[in-house]
Amino acid sequence: MTKSKVYTVKKLTEPQRLDLFLSLAMKTTRSQVQKYIDHGCVLVNGVPAKKTGVMVEHGDKIEYVADEVVVEKKKKALSFPEISIIAETKDYLVIEKPAGILVHPTEAGEQNTLAQWLLKKYPKMKNVGDTPGRPGIVHRLDKDASGLLVIAKNQKQFLALKQQFKDRTIDKEYTVLVYGVLKNNQVKLDFPIARGEQGRMAARPVIGEFRLRHAGVTLDGKDAHSELFVEKKFGRFTLLRVKIYTGRTHQIRVHCFAYGHPVVGDTIYVNKRMVKKGDQKIDRLFLHARKLSFDTLSGERMTFESQLPEELQTYLANLSVNTYL
């Protein structure tokens, strides 16, 4: 068994193909080098090689990492937090996503996502949906949010749920803690939401101009509707029940920010003047998908509810104590 080893490119007068260099250095075939590269076993100057034809030059460091090391790293990488299955039928899953896990990989190619968990647990769902690598996923929650998601287990259910989201017949409610005290106990927000120059979302009230300082110039926004219901007030904070009727990226966070009441724990849509030095620390969004209703393929209306996670309950308990000291 070949052990891990580093080779330094020397005495080359002109660039050479990686597979040719490594086959000579390791005294093996170029087809075997191809397999090493495909398995992620070859690094060029510390970066995994993506193809055999990459050119190496004098001074480059080529590292071969033994297969068993790569396999062990992948095993460690694919470790998921506990994901609770609230309900399961032959057509759908209702799960409770914990904070800290992405629903699906971004362009960075993250490994520990809900999508990978689904592929590992339900390999037959591989081709369900519209997008490869997102099995049965019809809606999402932000990484640092938690709560209920419905996942389609077959294409028929996927298309039915997708249509319900399009028709806005799926009901979604969230528990959200925001900065500031709302004057009205019920507020409807219809600020259009757009993507700024730096990729962050921004909302602009229909009347007057609004600009998210960190987003740059905003484009024409997409229709977005949210409704806020005050549940409890804690000094400088307000606990809300939020219903959304559209599913725009970061919708609750952007709408609350635009309304002047950013979500506690948000590090993107934040008003630093509202955050005090003595405030409790929180390493996630205080945003939890608490209720979800949809229709099954047989037409039955299903409703699921989720309790506030323990860490958010503790946060509120401490907030309540400190409010009345």
Summarize the structure.
The protein has 325 residues and is of the alpha+beta class. The protein has helices at residues 18-26, 30-38, 67-77, 114-121, 155-167, 251-258, 310-323; strands at 5-8, 16-17, 42-44, 47-48, 55-56, 61-64, 84-88, 92-97, 146-152, 171-179, 186-189, 193-195, 201-203, 226-234, 237-244, 287-295, 301-305.
How many strand elements?
17
Beta-strand residue percentage: 25-35%
- Whole-Å distance between the termini? 67 Å
Shape verdict = elongated
Secondary structure category: alpha+beta
Helical element count?
7
Low-confidence stretches: 68-72, 206-219
Topology overview:
Layout: E1 5-8, E2 16-17, H1 18-26, H2 30-38, E3 42-44, E4 47-48, E5 55-56, E6 61-64, H3 67-77, E7 84-88, E8 92-97, H4 114-121, E9 146-152, H5 155-167, E10 171-179, E11 186-189, E12 193-195, E13 201-203, E14 226-234, E15 237-244, H6 251-258, E16 287-295, E17 301-305, H7 310-323
Parallel strand pairs: 9-16
Antiparallel strand pairs: 1-6, 2-5, 3-4, 3-6, 7-8, 8-9, 10-15, 10-16, 11-14, 12-13, 14-15, 16-17
Helix pairs in contact: 1-2
Describe the structure.
By secondary structure, this protein is α+β, with helices and mostly antiparallel strands. Helix content is about 20%, strand content about 25%. It is built from seven helices and 17 strands. The chain has helices spanning about 20-25, 30-40, 65-75, 115-120, 155-165, 250-260, 310-325; strands spanning about 5-10, 15, 40-45, 45-50, 55, 60-65, 85-90, 90-95, 145-150, 170-180, 185-190, 195, 200-205, 225-235, 235-245, 285-295, 300-305. Strands 7, 8, 9, 10, 11, 14, 15, 16 and 17 form a nine-stranded mixed beta sheet that branches. The protein has a four-stranded antiparallel beta sheet with strand order 1-6-3-4, with no helix packed on it. It has a two-stranded antiparallel ribbon with strand order 2-5. Helix 1 (about 20-25) packs across helix 2. The protein starts with a strand and ends with a helix. Mean pLDDT is about 85; it is low at about 70 and about 205-220.
